């Protein structure tokens, strides 16, 4: 008690403003201290623990990743503290850590977000640290770059393709569609009772934009010009699928995981989804399905899909720590680990040769590998401005599918919102 | 406890000390008082004033992603506010907030009052039934919100199933998937969440109305409606003021219900100021603008908090 009284002399009424400032400073210091607590390892020498963060919250990725991390940790004589946060909180969390100057040593960042994080200045240049992107798909190598330096490298990539239920297709005597016209016609024929012809995700976030981009880009749309006739054409395709009842009105609320659930439950004969669903889908022995590339507007067009996947980054700390983290990333990106990760988590190896080998061994992956060759990184056209345009596009898609706005006017609104 | 006693003793013994000299006693009393108040100051300063000041400051800054690392965020005056006001979604968002709040309050209050009047009569199982009505209040919103998402699903939701079977609708209503219905859907769920709060407080208010008033009124020949209109409503007025202002402050800041059901979508049709601020800050990473919207919201809440304090003060004075 007496100690309390003595310390309280500091807080004489007259001294109040100063005390407040001191308190605020103390608060800030404590916060900073909390942040760096886990980050600062041994003094100068090689650290014994590294921190890692990612947003995989579903199996099999969230069980496979810690295993691979452990392996690479053991090989480099370091313990890796694994942490996962939900996707929606990932960027805010990373920024909060950046503000405390305690970015995790290793972070697995979604490739369209890489440039934003790199722009903070908190990441170590991997090209300067001696890591090379040779042999990787040029598009993913480019997605990891900011102002000429490589800040992130992907162990595996993904894309979107069309899954179809072979049972429904054989019963209806149909072949999987290759063009938009066939897609619309097949979807209509396969819509029966509670079952819809096709399912996709048009949720109002980057996820919805990602699902729309294969159609948008294949129609030769350009993210810098959201209201082009090509973009209108692509959005009209989605509008007609929902309008004709071939796709559920609920697509605007479905995430890609929800779409996968609908497909597995037999509520959709086709779905647009990524290879990361393969482990789950294959686990269901009663489900028979095939995978084909995304249909194209005319038979001579080639599908252009967005490049998905996360890149490994190293946060700034002390030289010895950074070197250790780089060594671990090198291990994570090695051919063995990258191939293992791709296989277990449903990714395509980012190394072109490894991907080609995998495609010939696994027909399920053939469509994805074929598409990754022509895939486009989402930040190619816009760089750090991408998230804003992506949000505007997602809003336009929702306004059309859920609100009955015409594709033309929704997209011209999106274009003016993106410019703001 | 011991300190106050000591302090008092010190004060009495020190009283005859020569005037002019700084007596130790009263000073110690003052410090003791400060010591008791200090934790509250610290708490308020650390957890209310500092964040509030930061938020107000951030509203005037161009706070970008790199500001987090560099700590540099230039001041831009009212730029964030003007950008937010000119945002294509702002008008709709404000309208949504008003409709959501007004709709929730009106129905929560009306249904809560009806149930409170109903349960103030004694009947078998009245107690257990009344407790059951509290369930929406006790359940974590993440749980009930997810359940409502299933209930309101267009294709497989039980609500559409029931409505179709009793032929109230011809086609399934896309509750959460249409820009025309989503605001209604989130408001309905929020009404459901808010009814118990209104019922409990109003029920308490009803208990404090003396029964003799009703007896006297019926002797004078007043019917049920007249008794409600001329006794219940006027005597319930103080409680009503509290319920409505508190309800308003709670409803304006509702976040979880909307976030779980629609995330403010589709196409911003169920976006309110809270989800708008969240989207700006944490999805689009426009922290300055997000803070600006948050500050507007704080302003609204403060206005109604003052109204509430006024109302309760008048009530206390009237009670004296």
TrEMBL record, chain A:
Pfam families: SBP_bac_8 (PF13416). Keywords: Signal, Transport. One of its GO terms (molecular function) is maltose binding. InterPro entries: SBP. GO terms for biological process: maltodextrin transmembrane transport; maltose transport. It comes from the Bacteria. One of its GO terms (cellular component) is ATP-binding cassette (ABC) transporter complex, substrate-binding subunit-containing. Residues 1-32 form the signal peptide. Belongs to the bacterial solute-binding protein 1 family. This is Carbohydrate ABC transporter substrate-binding protein, CUT1 family. The lineage of its organism: Bacteria, Bacillati, Actinomycetota, Actinomycetes, Kitasatosporales.
UniProtKB/TrEMBL annotation, chain B:
The chain crosses the membrane at residues 31-50, 98-119, 131-151, 183-206, 235-252, 290-311. Keywords: Cell membrane, Membrane, Transmembrane, Transmembrane helix, Transport. It is a multi-pass membrane protein. It is found in: Cell membrane. InterPro entries: MetI-like (IPR000515), MetI-like_sf (IPR035906). It comes from the Bacteria. Residues 1-24 are annotated as: Disordered. Residues 94-308 form the ABC transmembrane type-1 domain. One of its GO terms (cellular component) is plasma membrane. This is Carbohydrate ABC transporter membrane protein 1, CUT1 family. It comes from Actinacidiphila paucisporea.
């Amino acid at each position: 008690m007496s100690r309390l009284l003595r310390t309280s002399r500091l807080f004489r009424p007259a001294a109040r403003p100063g005390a407040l400032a001191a308190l605020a400073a103390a608060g800030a210091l404590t916060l900073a201290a909390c942040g760096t607590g886990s980050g600062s390892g041994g003094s100068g020498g090689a650290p014994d623990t590294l921190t890692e963060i990612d947003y995989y919250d579903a199996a099999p990725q969230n069980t496979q990743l810690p295993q691979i991390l452990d392996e690479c940790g053991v090989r480099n004589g370091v313990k890796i503290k694994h942490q996962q946060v939900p996707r929606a909180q990932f960027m805010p969390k990373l920024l909060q850590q950046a503000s405390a100057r305690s970015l995790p040593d290793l972070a697995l960042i979604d490739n369209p977000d890489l440039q934003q994080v790199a722009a903070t200045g908190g990441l170590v240049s991997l090209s300067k640290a001696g890591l090379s992107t040779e042999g990787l798909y040029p598009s993913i190598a480019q997605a990891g770059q900011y102002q000429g330096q490589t800040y992130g490298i992907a162990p595996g990539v993904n894309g979107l393709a069309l899954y179809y239920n072979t049972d429904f297709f054989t019963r209806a005597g149909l072949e999987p569609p290759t063009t938009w016209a066939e897609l619309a016609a097949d979807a209509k024929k396969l819509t029966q009772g509670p079952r819809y012809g096709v399912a996709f995700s048009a949720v109002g976030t980057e996820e919805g934009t990602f699902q729309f981009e294969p159609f948008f880009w294949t129609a030769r749309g350009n993210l810098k010009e959201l209201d082009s006739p090509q973009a209108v054409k692509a959005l009209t395709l989605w509008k007609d699928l929902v309008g004709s009842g071939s796709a559920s009105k609920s697509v605007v609320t479905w995430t890609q995981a929800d779409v996968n659930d609908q497909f597995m439950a037999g509520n959709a004969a086709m779905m647009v989804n990524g290879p990361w669903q393969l482990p789950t889908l294959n686990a269901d022995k009663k489900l028979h399905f095939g995978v084909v590339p995304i249909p194209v507007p005319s038979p001579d067009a080639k599908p252009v899909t967005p490049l998905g996947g996360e890149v490994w980054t190293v946060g700034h700390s002390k030289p010895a720590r950074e070197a250790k983290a780089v060594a671990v990333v090198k291990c994570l990106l090695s051919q063995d680990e990258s191939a293992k990760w791709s296989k277990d988590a449903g990714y395509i190896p980012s190394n072109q040769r490894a991907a080609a080998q995998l495609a010939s061994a696994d027909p399920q992956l053939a469509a994805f590998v074929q598409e990754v060759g022509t895939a486009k990184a989402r930040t190619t056209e816009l760089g750090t401005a991408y998230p804003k345009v992506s949000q505007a596009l997602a809003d336009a898609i929702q306004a059309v599918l859920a609100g009955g706005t015409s594709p033309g006017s929704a997209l011209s609104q999106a274009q003016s919102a993106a410019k703001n | 406890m011991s300190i106050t006693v000591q302090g008092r003793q010190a004060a009495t013994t020190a009283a005859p000390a020569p005037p002019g000299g700084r007596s130790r006693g009263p000073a110690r009393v003052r410090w003791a008082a400060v010591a008791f108040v200090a934790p509250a100051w610290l708490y308020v300063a650390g957890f209310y004033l500092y964040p509030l000041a930061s938020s107000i400051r951030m509203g005037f800054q161009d706070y970008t992603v790199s500001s987090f690392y560099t700590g540099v965020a230039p001041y831009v005056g009212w730029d964030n506010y003007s950008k937010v006001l000119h945002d294509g979604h702002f008008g709709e968002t404000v309208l949504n907030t008003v409709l959501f709040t007004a709709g929730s309050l009106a129905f929560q209050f009306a249904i809560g009052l009806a149930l409170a009047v109903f349960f103030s009569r004694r009947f078998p199982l009245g107690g257990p039934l009344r407790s059951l009505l509290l369930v929406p209040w006790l359940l974590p919103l993440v749980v009930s919100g997810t359940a409502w998402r299933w209930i309101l699903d267009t294709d497989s939701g039980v609500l559409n199933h029931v409505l179709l079977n009793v032929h109230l609708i011809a086609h399934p209503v896309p509750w959460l998937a249409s820009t025309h219905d989503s605001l209604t859907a989130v408001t309905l769920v929020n009404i459901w969440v808010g009814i118990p709060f209104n019922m409990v407080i109003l029920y308490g208010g009803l208990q404090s109305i003396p029964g003799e008033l009703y007896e006297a009124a019926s002797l004078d020949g007043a019917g049920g409606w007249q008794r409600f209109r001329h006794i219940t409503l006027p005597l319930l007025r103080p409680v009503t003021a509290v319920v409505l202002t508190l309800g308003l402050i709670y409803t304006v800041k509702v976040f979880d219900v909307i976030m779980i059901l629609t995330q403010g979508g589709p196409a911003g049709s169920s976006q309110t100021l809270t989800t708008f601020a969240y989207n700006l800050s944490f999805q689009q990473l426009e922290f300055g603008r997000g803070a600006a919207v948050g500050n507007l919201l704080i302003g609204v809440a403060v206005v109604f908090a003052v109204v509430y304090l006024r109302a309760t003060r008048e009530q206390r004075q009237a009670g004296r």
